[in-house]
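Recall the central idea of this unit: under ordinary conditions, the amino acid sequence of a chain determines the structure it adopts. In this exercise we apply that idea directly, starting from the sequence alone.
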Amino acid sequence: MQTNFSTTIRPARQAQLRRRFAAGLPVFRGKQDGRAPSDPGDFGQGTYYSTSKARAANYGALKPFTIVLTKPLLLTVEEAYTQIADRYGTISGVAGHPETVVEKQRSEIENKHPKFPEGPKCPQRRV
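Accordingly, the structure predicted from this sequence is:
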């Protein structure tokens, strides 16, 4: 089973993105009545944020966050869909993804990109 992810993003651009993400990325999350959205998202279960206020507002009242990405997985949109969504069958609209798919996805990504201990509670979150 392949656990490596590959990208066509040039090394200089990768370095630029890593610096930007390490400095903190302003993002938004929408919630309705204090509840998180139930949509599993294109990449499976998880907490989704957006750099777009309009997109986040589709899910409810906006709350701003700053996310610090210490070890980001850098892929183009096409690469993300090919290497993650297609591999794990997580495309939006497919309700009730089997737990084994979610666990397989989490395990492979964490093996490649181990999590760092969480920093301070929101609005800043280390991922």
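Residues 99-112 form the longest helix (14 residues).
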